[in-house]
Amino acid sequence: MEPLLLLPALIVLIICAIVGGWFPSKKYVSMLLKWAEKNNYKIIKYKMKLPILSPFTFASNGQRVFLVTIELKEGKIKECWVCCGNWFFGNHSEEVKVKWI
């Protein structure tokens, strides 16, 4: 096979990996929603953030970090950082860590 034919396929593969890694998968969002439900929180909004811009600076590629605005049971609004997944096992773990702002 010609090396020049492999170049476009390689470029497409790299773009898909970059774009696919940036958007939160359903698994991570599901973990976030389960955490909120378990703790009787109502999620008002959430946004995935780069780990380096969060308290979870050393999160792995298998983890996703969210900035979350929630409503507590008493009606109080709070913000927190939520890291979903395990450093080693990624989203194969249901681990959720929280740091309140």
Structure report:
By secondary structure, the protein is an alpha+beta fold. The chain has one domain. Helix content is 33%, strand content 29%. It has 2 helices and 4 strands; from the N terminus they run H-H-E-E-E-E. Strands 1-2-3-4 form a 4-stranded antiparallel sheet. A hairpin with a 5-residue loop joins strand 2 and strand 3.
DSSP helix fraction: 25-40%
Q: How many individual domains?
A: 1
Provide the succession of SSEs: HHEEEE
Note the beta-strand portion.
Answer: 25-35%
Low-confidence stretches: none
Radius of gyration, CA atoms, in whole angstroms: 17 Å
**Largest beta sheet: strand ordering:** 1-2-3-4
**Average residue pLDDT:** 86
The span between the termini is 55 Å
Q: Please count the beta strands (DSSP E, at least 2 residues each).
A: 4
The biggest sheet, with number of strands, parallel, antiparallel or mixed sense and barrel status, is: 4 strands, antiparallel
Report the principal-axis shape: elongated
Q: Give the count of helical stretches.
A: 2
* Alpha-beta content class: alpha+beta
